[in-house]
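Thread amino acids onto this structure.
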């Protein structure tokens, strides 16, 4: 074969694979009539410098179109045009005018991108995204590997890569703010808090133009690639350096002992419904990649975005698993949180199935064997699977923990009986399957909804700035403004809000399960009542680092709670035990204000619990959601060598809200727990 001659190439591997002499391209399309490979000279090129027509007799094997192009390599920009029938009534949406990304592309160039051109009629070559060839072997990991920290030792911090450091108060140089490098710069802050894992909101390349009006998609739940890191979080904004910046962040976090969990979106893409743009999958093989309605003219929508990926179709299953394996093996991430994961249990008709093929593929893949898997176990089609999501390895965002804790601190009737279950890791949801307590990812707030500050400051959502008439976002937030809507100068309301925040954090970090807190809740970040800030890439969503100083007492409280959770205290034998280890060895007795008499009635607002080891009581927890003080009986300490010490009292202002030195002994057999507050005593 003469050097420099284009060859037929191979169907495997999918994507663009660089070798010493050139690049093999392979892409799936079962219904295409013809495929062109476009090669662009630079990111600024308005049109392709070379166009290679693939011959179906030579460059097609089964449903795969492939070609080997010599004398090109990493950095080469490319894309596809695909010809085929345009018959929307049959689910066929081929459009040769549209330039398409490679579904397996490992990097993306978006410098010239215009969403409107991809959605409208006509050619969009001058304003399309382009895939970029990479060589993943060129990076030096310096021995780095995923950490595999057990869930029982994990404390998760949900954060947005851009919003974490984009605010000018972050103290970073302008080109570092809102980037992967910005996360690295703030690792000492995460270590000071005691975080063991960051859960990053979507970092797959997404369509930032997928937002109403002139707004910007900030959250990133609008992916265009399942393999490429998002350019917007790169200092350089260039495809190949972006890869290294992401991996530098992973390596730095691992060196600090912090895991990286990615929030991944495999239920939909940025292509939207019938009127959405054609960026990749629509133009390659629409009926394969997306669930279609009964007459196939429209998309099935179980995601609230106008369409749904056909996740249990064989080609899409392979794509999802290959994507996960890429992020584990080539990018060294430690785990994944699956957005609207219940979609993954739906078959090609949208019907939920037991042991869905894609979930089995993920569960059984050896590359993913040590990887954390977390499900958001519901979807927009009404499927709610908290407590019943498929597979033994999957942990679950526990939406019931969120709602029941909110109800309790809000003093709703009927909340105490539910809270008792949430404190123990939700055995009412998980015990029947013999799941460990860590099955429950316990959280009170996350990106989707109010911040913790706003949860105690607003009764209603205030999403007017989103441009959707305040119709978007959840209307029922189980929130209470403590007496005034929004910001207030009333000192009583201010103190009550601070106490309610401490209560929510205490229940999150002292309950059995895997705790997760949201970026900025440790310092009262506010979104001014916006509970759906997906299109607010501005100070509404960014972390204002001045709050970290202004609310340093709360930040200290969170750090001490995490420290308390990790090393729950010194027993009489001098052991330092984690909260889970204490409860593994302990017997728990439940009380109300009187010992051994828990009041689980609809009108109750109080609950108490004691954990006993053989040597005596280990801790005594008292919860008062009533609006008056309640006097709780305290168990006697049988061993003369043991005494009760108060360590947490959320009624107290900082630094007395949590005592790291166990300085205050409790001599009486009763403790007056103040209104809407939580007290923790430790026996030592």
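Threaded sequence (684 positions):
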């Amino acid at each position: 074969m003469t050097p420099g001659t284009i060859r037929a190439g191979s169907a495997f591997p999918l994507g663009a694979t660089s070798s010493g002499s050139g690049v093999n391209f392979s892409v799936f399309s079962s219904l295409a009539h013809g495929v062109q490979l476009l090669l662009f000279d630079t990111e600024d090129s308005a049109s392709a410098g070379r166009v290679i027509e693939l011959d179906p007799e030579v460059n097609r094997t089964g449903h795969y179109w492939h070609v080997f192009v010599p004398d090109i390599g990493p950095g080469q920009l490319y894309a596809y045009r695909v010809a085929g029938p345009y018959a929307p009534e049959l689910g066929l949406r081929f459009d040769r005018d549209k330039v398409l990304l490679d579904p397996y592309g490992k990097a993306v160039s978006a410098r010239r991108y215009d969403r409107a051109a991809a959605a409208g009629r006509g050619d969009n070559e001058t304003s399309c995204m382009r895939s970029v060839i990479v060589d993943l072997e060129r990076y030096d990991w310096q021995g780095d590997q995923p950490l595999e920290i057990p869930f029982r030792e994990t404390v998760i911090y949900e954060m947005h890569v851009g919003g974490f450091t984009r605010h000018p108060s972050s103290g970073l140089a302008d080109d570092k703010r809102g980037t992967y490098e910005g996360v690295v710069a703030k690792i000492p802050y995460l270590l000071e808090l005691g975080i063991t894992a960051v859960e990053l909101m979507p970092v797959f390349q997404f369509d930032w133009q997928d937002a109403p009006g002139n707004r910007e998609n900030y959250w990133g739940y609008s992916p265009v690639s399942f393999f490429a890191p998002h350019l917007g979080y790169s200092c350089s904004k260039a495809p190949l350096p972006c890869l290294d910046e992401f991996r530098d962040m992973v390596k730095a976090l691992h060196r600090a002992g912090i895991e990286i969990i990615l929030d991944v979106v495999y239920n939909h893409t940025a292509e939207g419904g019938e009127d959405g743009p054609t960026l990749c999958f629509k133009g390659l093989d629409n009926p394969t990649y997306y669930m279609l309605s009964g007459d196939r003219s429209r998309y099935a929508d179980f995601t609230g975005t106008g369409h749904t990926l056909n996740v249990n179709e064989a080609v899409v299953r392979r794509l999802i698993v290959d994507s996960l394996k890429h992020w584990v093996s080539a990018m060294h991430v430690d785990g994944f949180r699956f957005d609207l994961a219940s979609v993954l249990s739906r078959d090609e008709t949208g019907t939920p199935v037991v042991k869905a093929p894609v979930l089995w593929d993920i569960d059984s893949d050896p590359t993913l064997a040590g990887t954390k898997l977390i499900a958001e176990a519901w979807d927009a089609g009404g499927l709610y699977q908290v407590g019943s999501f498929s597979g033994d390895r999957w942990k679950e965002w526990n939406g019931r923990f969120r709602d029941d804790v909110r109800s309790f601190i809000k003093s709703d009737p009927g909340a105490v009986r539910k809270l008792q279950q949430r404190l123990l890791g939700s055995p009412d949801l998980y015990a029947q399957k013999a799941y460990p307590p860590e099955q429950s990812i316990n959280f009170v707030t996350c990106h989707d909804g109010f911040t913790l500050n706003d949860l105690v400051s607003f009764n209603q959502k205030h999403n007017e700035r989103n441009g959707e008439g305040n119709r978007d976002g959840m209307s029922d937030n189980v929130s209470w403004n403590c007496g005034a809507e929004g910001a207030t100068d009333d000192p009583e309301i201010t103190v009550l809000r601070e106490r309610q925040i401490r209560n929510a954090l205490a229940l999150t970090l002292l309950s059995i399960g895997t705790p997760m807190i949201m970026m900025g809740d440790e310092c009262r970040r506010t979104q001014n009542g916006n509970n759906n800030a997906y299109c607010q890439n501005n100070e509404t969503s960014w972390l204002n680092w001045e709050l970290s100083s202004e609310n340093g007492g709360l930040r200290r409280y969170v750090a001490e709670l995490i420290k308390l959770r990790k090393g729950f205290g010194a027993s009489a034998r001098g052991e330092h035990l984690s909260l889970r280890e204490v409860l593994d060895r302990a017997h728990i007795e439940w009380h109300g204000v009187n010992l051994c008499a828990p009041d689980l009635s609809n009108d109750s607002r109080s609950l108490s619990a004691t954990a006993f080891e053989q040597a005596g009581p280990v801790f005594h927890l008292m919860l008062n959601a009533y609006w008056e003080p309640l006097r709780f009986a305290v168990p006697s300490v049988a061993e003369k060598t043991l005494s009760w010490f108060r360590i947490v009292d959320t009624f107290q202002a900082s630094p007395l809200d949590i005592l790291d030195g166990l300085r205050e002994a409790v001599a009486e057999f009763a403790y007056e727990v103040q209104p809407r507050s939580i007290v923790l005593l430790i026996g030592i």
